[in-house]
């Protein structure tokens, strides 16, 4: 088994302390390889455990976004915009002191990474953005934004279970959202093994933050086209027709590139994290191909 050394560091940011992990294999950056930064949101570093294990020939960096896991907020703010996450990513990259990095970013992390490239493209050589979920680029934009707002409102009013049931229904729906989507009977939390009772907490970053800031983000296409970064927009083959995959296809089209199809689904890189499985071996191979040469 390849020996990997992991070092955990922190970097201070306005309103938060960011925690990140540097995973070094026997070669990695010492052999001239670019650092590979794995980015999720609101998923923390734990979700990339399996994927990182397939890149022991490189130095891999994972991190916990602000207000998630080991990166607590210190300012008491309830919302985090993609641009704020982008500045956090900038701080992590600059703290590494390794120059421009390669980035694989998933879901909300892909939105934040697109914001990073738009603001600081010189810090990223290649970005692979996997299923960035923004409603702003969809032909059914108004219906999608209303559905996301309804999930957020449900969370504030009824708690995690009812809101998460609506979230699962939204993310698994294939095709355009009908105009009456938010007026349809709400799915039962019990159908998904979720609690219907409200425990009173309102600190879930997915339901409390991403359903507003992430899904309503407008990519700066002019800045993305002007950036020196090579941008690959990807979606899982099983995700075709779903919210995040449709968003990815629209972003790729507006950037004038082809959508890259990865194996499996939205969480195709997962190898049992959170009890979910994708096709991590095949996914890692596809990611290597998408990243191209790392030198």
Automatic annotation (TrEMBL):
Q: Establish whether keyword Hydrolase is in the entry.
A: yes
Q: Which Pfam families match?
A: Abhydrolase_1 (PF00561)
Q: What is this protein called?
A: Hydrolase
| Region Disordered, annotated ranges | 66-85
Keyword annotations: Hydrolase
What species does this protein belong to?
Streptomyces purpureus
| Keyword check for Hydrolase | yes
Q: Which InterPro entries match?
A: AB_hydrolase_1, AB_hydrolase_fold
């Amino acid at each position: 088994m390849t020996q990997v050394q992991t070092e955990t560091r922190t970097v201070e940011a306005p309103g938060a302390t960011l925690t990140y992990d540097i995973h070094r294999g026997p070669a990695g950056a010492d052999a001239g390889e670019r650092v590979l930064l794995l980015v999720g949101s609101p998923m923390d570093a734990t979700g990339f455990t399996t994927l990182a294990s397939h890149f022991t020939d490189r130095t891999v960096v994972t991190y916990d976004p602000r207000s998630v896991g080991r990166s607590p907020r210190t300012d008491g703010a309830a919302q985090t915009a993609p641009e704020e996450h982008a500045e956090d990513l900038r701080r992590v990259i600059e703290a590494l002191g390794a120059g421009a990095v390669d980035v694989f970013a998933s879901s909300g992390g892909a939105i934040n990474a697109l914001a990073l490239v738009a603001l600081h493209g010189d810090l990223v050589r290649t970005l692979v953005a996997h299923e960035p979920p923004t409603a702003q680029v969809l032909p059914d934009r108004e219906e999608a934004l209303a559905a996301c707002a309804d999930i957020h409102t449900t969370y504030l009013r009824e708690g995690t279970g009812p809101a998460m049931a609506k979230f699962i229904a939204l993310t698994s729906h294939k095709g355009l959202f009908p105009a009456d989507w938010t007026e349809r009977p709400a799915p039962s939390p019990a159908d998904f093994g979720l609690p219907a009772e409200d425990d009173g907490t309102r600190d879930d970053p997915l339901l409390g933050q991403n359903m507003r800031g992430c899904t309503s983000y407008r990519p700066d296409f002019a800045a993305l086209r002007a950036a020196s970064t090579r941008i690959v927009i990807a979606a899982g083959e099983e995700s075709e027709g779903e919210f995040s995959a449709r968003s990815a296809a629209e972003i790729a089209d507006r950037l004038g590139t082809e959508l890259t199809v990865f194996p499996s689904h939205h969480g195709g890189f997962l190898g049992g994290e959170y009890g979910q499985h994708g096709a991590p071996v095949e996914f890692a191979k596809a990611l290597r191909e998408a990243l191209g040469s790392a030198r």
